[in-house]
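User: Could you check the structure of this?
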Amino acid sequence: MKHPAKQWVDYHHWANQRIIHRLKELPEQAYHQKMQSVFPSISEVMVHLYVTDDLWLDVMSGRDREESIARATRTSEETKGTGLGELEKLFADEIPGFSRQPGGSRSADDSRTSTSRTVGTPSLPSGVARG
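Assistant: Sure, the predicted C-alpha cells are below.
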C-alpha cells in the first residue's frame, strides 16, 4: 500500500489534470477574460496554482524558505499571461509525476483527445472522504 502522503500527491496531480482538461473545453478567450473575483482571470488562478505547487515542492524539499519565496515571486511574474497549453507543459515539466497517472491511466496530454472519457481517480488515504 502507498504511503498516505504519496496518495495525497497523486490525488492532487489528478485534480489539477481534471481542471486543465475542463478548461480546455472553454473558448480560448474565456481563459484570459477579465472577471470580478479574487483573481482577475482564470489564467491568473491557474498561474497561482502552478506557483503555489512549485513553492510547496521547494519548501518540502528542504530549500531555504526566503529563497523559495523569492523564486516563487519570479516564477509568478514569468508565467503571468501564460496560455493553458503552455501552463500544462510547465506543470508536466516542473511538478514531478504530473504527466503520469496512478494505475496506468491516461496522462494529462491524453485527456485533451476526448471529453467523453474520464481520467482514473487515485485512491485517497483511508478515512478520507472525497469532496
